[in-house]
Design a protein that fits this description.
The protein has 233 residues and is α/β, with parallel strands linked by helices. It has 2 domains: 125 residues, Response regulator (Rossmann fold, 3-Layer(aba) Sandwich), CATH 3.40.50.2300; 94 residues, Arc Repressor Mutant, subunit A (Orthogonal Bundle), CATH 1.10.10. It has 8 helices and 12 strands. The strands form 3 sheets. It has a 5-stranded parallel sheet with strand order 2-1-3-4-5, sandwiched between helices. It has a 4-stranded antiparallel sheet with strand order 6-7-8-9, with helices on one face. α3 links the parallel β3 and β4. 27% of the residues are buried.
């Protein structure tokens, strides 16, 4: 079955370049110059991956609006922002919308194809993963993979999607070390530096500690990664 990639880009030359290179690698590419055209198409059929510019003509945040629409339709669709905007505020907004990647222009077409390959591979792995119980219970923690909700001692923990993926990975094998490389894969963001992983862990710990100031389940394994320490009881 052919993989469908949607490209929403207002610049006709860039739109054509992206379409040509992805088509040459065997993908079916559907291009849209603006938000209304893309919205109408997505309402009929979802792509397998969407690449969105943020600014679409005079629609300054058209890509963000499209991302939210797509997320309402699918929580697992790979979404890449491909944009000239490089502010931290925009990157943070993309993370809150649970986009899988944020790439700034200009971009190497070879790199773009590589990222598309990588994210589609991750998407395939998620869809073909063995069916298991949707709920993980480890001591005082309960995690539901379908609703993507986490509770600690009965209280909800407000996690971002990336933070949820990290907790899910750690608690699947409590007591076992998850390496930095393994956690980098979990974020679905390509190559992620150790400091970035440390930042995610720090924010996760703080969120648990706002509910329980004695929380100490996430243990640092210096130079290697992290593990979820099982309750002693």
């Amino acid at each position: 079955m052919t993989t469908i990639i949607a490209v929403v880009e207002d610049d006709p030359d860039q739109r054509e370049n992206y379409s040509d290179v992805l088509t040459a690698h065997g993908y079916e590419v559907r291009t849209y110059p603006d938000r209304p055209t893309a919205e109408a198409a997505f309402n009929l059929e979802l792509p397998d991956l969407a690449m969105l510019d943020i600014m679409l003509g005079e629609d300054m945040n058209g890509g963000f609006d499209l991302c939210m629409q797509l997320r309402n339709m699918s929580s697992t669709l790979p979404i890449i922002f491909l944009t000239a905007r490089d502010s931290d505020a925009d990157r943070i907004s993309s993370q809150r919308m649970t986009a899988w990647d944020y790439i700034t222009k200009p971009v190497s077409l070879e790199f773009l194809v590589a990222r598309v390959h990588a994210l589609l591979k991750i998407s395939d792995q998620l869809q073909t993963a063995p069916t298991e119980s949707a709920t993980i219970s480890v001591g005082s923690l309960e995690l539901n993979e379908n609703s993507m909700l986490v509770h600690w001692k009965g209280q909800p923990v407000n996690l971002t999607l990336t933070e949820f993926w990290i907790i899910e990975s750690l608690t699947r094998n409590p007591g076992h070390v998850k390496t930095y490389d393994g956690l980098s894969d979990v974020t679905r963001q390509g190559l992620v530096e150790r400091n970035t992983i440390n930042g995610y862990i720090r924010r996760i710990r703080n969120k648990f500690r706002t509910l329980d100031d004695s929380f100490d389940r996430i243990q640092t394994v210096h130079g290697t990664g992290y593990k979820w320490e099982q309750d002693s009881t």
